[in-house]
Design brief:
Blueprint lengths: L20 E2 L2 E2 L3 H7 L3 H19 L7 H6 L20 H14 L4 H14 L13 H11 L24 H6 L5 H12 L6 H18 L4 H17 L9
Antiparallel strand pairs: 1-2
Helix pairs in contact: 2-4, 4-5, 5-6, 8-9, 9-10
Length: 248
């Protein structure tokens, strides 16, 4: 008998036509964006595309020593490498980012996100070739808990050794969706999404800093200004928050 979770498949959302989205591929004229200044929609599209491009660039050299990369830096899309994948292949970083983004289109529902994570892990949902070839230990354990019926709100690892970048790598859509929310709401949503897999305060805090930095960039601030504002304002928030003070 097939497990019950495999009977559920995420339904692609009905999205309005967009000139820069065709069959899940972004077609953005970067020169035009530089001349005219990107709109909010274009910043959003470029943010998600940036996740996929950075992921695909880094995947072939995962775990390779920095010294070796200095001798042969990454300058284009490579094939083979650490996971023996074709050039341009994205990993779980992008797949789970797209699961979060797709879920947020329909509202804020952690169990829905969790089901999409299970569909990725068990059925290859949002993978480039229908196969999962890389998954971190903490992420895998949390998703398997969800598959067994544990609520998404209780699935994430809380031990110090459960920390990692497995929630940070997929958190950008929260900044895009809640870009206009008050700081406390933005951080609360971010912490909840992180905790689906990574529930330790350190992982939540890393996601919070990243999301706030991304939001400031989305608003048009310079990278330096976004960084200074994040460190000063958001850093102070964490230092004064009882659940995070000992990690800040």
């Amino acid at each position: 008998m097939r497990p019950a979770h495999r009977s559920w498949r995420p339904r692609p959302p009905r999205l309005p036509p967009h000139p820069h989205i065709v069959d899940k591929t972004f077609d953005v004229d970067s020169d035009e964006l530089l001349r005219a200044g990107p709109s909010l929609e274009e910043r959003t599209a470029c943010g998600l595309l940036g996740v996929a491009c950075g992921d695909a660039l880094g995947l072939p050299v995962e775990f390779i020593a920095r010294g070796a990369l200095r001798k042969r830096p990454v300058t284009d899309m490579r094939g083979n490498g650490t996971h023996n994948q074709p050039p341009g292949t994205w990993s779980d970083d992008t797949s789970l980012t797209l699961c979060v983004a797709e879920s947020l289109i329909g509202g804020f529902n952690l169990d829905d996100m969790g089901r999409r994570f299970v569909a990725w892990r068990h059925d290859g949902y949002w993978t480039p070739y229908g196969v999962v070839f890389d998954s971190g230990k903490t992420t895998t354990e949390a998703i398997e808990r969800i598959a067994r019926g544990v609520p998404a709100t209780e699935a994430g690892g809380t031990d110090e050794w459960d920390n990692g970048n497995g929630s940070l790598m997929r958190i950008l859509p929260v900044a895009l969706r809640f870009r206009d929310a008050p700081l406390e709401e933005l951080l609360d949503k971010t912490h909840q999404v992180s905790a689906i897999t990574h529930a330790h305060p350190r992982s939540k805090m890393a996601c919070g800093l990243y999301v706030c930095l991304a939001r400031y960039l989305l608003q048009g601030r310079t990278p330096f200004d976004a960084y200074i504002t994040t460190i000063a304002g958001v850093g102070d928030w964490y230092r004064n928050a009882p659940d995070f003070a000992d990690q800040a």
